[in-house]
Amino acid sequence: MSLHIVHFIGPINHHSACTIRNLCLQALQSGASEIELHMSTEGGNMTAGFALYFFLKSLPVPLTTHNLGSIESVGVVIFLAGAKRYACPGTRFLVHPLHWGFGNLVAADHSRVSEWRDCLDFDAERYARAFDEATLDAPGHVDIRPNLFGNARLFDAAQALDAGMIHETVQARLPPAGATSHWWNA
């Protein structure tokens, strides 16, 4: 068994999603039989986040995710791609209404605004489906749809355990040198 740990701390954008994908692919090419993603993220771009979620779900080896600090917004979806999910004591998860930034956009017509609304609604529903799929058998299963359209919800590690977002609250530990390969974003 060859464990490879990908370390990621930062925002989710197209560059970081591609970096995580490439690190996982390098781990596979190096003989990984299991990958762990140790992460902390404030979330970010929904398109990049969902692309990374579906990529991680496609990995041909078991994936474990571990919350090292805070998992927010689309980062929650990415985190839920893990078949095994853990959080360090004192960590948190944040689910909140989805939003888009418009950069330098100064004008839009009705059709474009309607398209953006439809895309936000679509992303909120696929976020909720990913959450439901990962947490459905939890004793304290939570419907997060109201948190995606209304008030945000913060989960500490104990609440995340009850909701089925994680399987255990445990401090992350790195295996002894030489037993594991490490990959990180720069």
Structure, explained:
With 186 residues, this protein is α/β, with parallel strands linked by helices. Helix content is 39%, strand content 24%. The chain is built from 6 helices and 8 strands. Strands 1, 2, 3, 4, 5, 6, 7 and 8 form an 8-stranded mixed β-sheet that branches. α2 links the parallel β2 and β3 (63-72). α1 (14-29) packs parallel to α2 (46-57). The longest helix has 26 residues, at 110-135. The model has no long low-confidence stretch (mean pLDDT 93).
Which structural class best describes the helix and strand composition? alpha/beta
Relative helix content = 25-40%
Average residue-wise pLDDT: 93
Shape: globular
Tally of DSSP helical segments = 6
Task: Tell me about the largest β-sheet.
Answer: 8 strands, mixed
Give the terminus-to-terminus CA distance.
Answer: 27 Å
CA radius of gyration: 17 Å
Poorly predicted regions are none
Write the layout of secondary structure elements.
Layout lengths: L2 E7 L4 H16 L4 E8 L4 H12 L5 E10 L1 H6 L4 E4 L4 E4 L14 H26 L9 H5 L3 E4 H7 L4 E2 L10 E5 L2
Parallel strand pairs: 1-2, 1-8, 2-3, 3-4, 3-5, 4-7
Antiparallel strand pairs: 5-6
Helix pairs in contact: 1-2
